[in-house]
Amino acid sequence: MAEEQGEEFHLHDVLVTFKACLSQDNELRLDEYLRGWKALIKFMNSLGTVFSFVSTDAVNKIGILERLRKQSGPGDPGSMQAMVWAELTAKRVNFKMAPSTDTEASGTRTFLRLHRALLWLRLFLERLQNSAPDGRTSIMCAEAYKESLAQHHPWFIQKVASVAFYTLPSRKVFFEAMHAGTDDEVISLLQEALPALTMVYDVAQKFYEQNDLLDLP
Ligand code: 1PZ
Known about the structure:
CATH architecture: Orthogonal Bundle
Number of strands: 0
CATH topology: Glycolipid transfer protein, GLTP
Bound molecules: ligand 1PZ
Helix content: 55-70%
CATH class: Mainly Alpha
């Protein structure tokens, strides 16, 4: 796929990938989802090393899901829903305890971690899209975090995150790093990307909610 070529991040790649994530009957294709995440990590890394503690965890979780994808048999449809059903049937999902190793971690709880982070991204990009040219990314990021991931993180992670937000580059640098043209072009691409991202998020949210999986440790 085009988005895996070269090191530079293009906002457009994320859009294409997240648009390709859902099948007509709303099956969420894991390979596309993980590809979208990898593009996002590339973006985050292009902003500097301060966020390595964030990207290390995300990269790790992408790795867990990729490994599970590789292990799945030829009949596997490759969707998030199929993975969750298979794990539930095999009693691979631990409802009581967090995994102590990566190999113990179910795909179901690992996907949930990325899914929660996707809400942060969505809230952050919404703010970025509507921000004034002198808008502060650190504030947008902190607000989005408070409304999403923070609710699932222990206080010490919240503290580290809140300090890290102050080191975020400016709106101008963010826009440039997206490699999508002028500010107006970035904004119109965001306007297109956000509904695609939201649809993917909503499908997963509804599925986890219906199956009572939103609080997996
Ligand atoms: C570009 C700016 C990036 C700001 C990112 C905002 C996210 C804030 C802070 C997150 C700290 C993550 C440290 C690790 C936390 C883990 O404990 C949790 C729970 O996993 P568990 O311990 O249960 O196995 N991990 C997560 O919540 C997943 C977090 C992934 C964050 C990825 C954000 C990526 C954003 C893409 C940027 C374009």
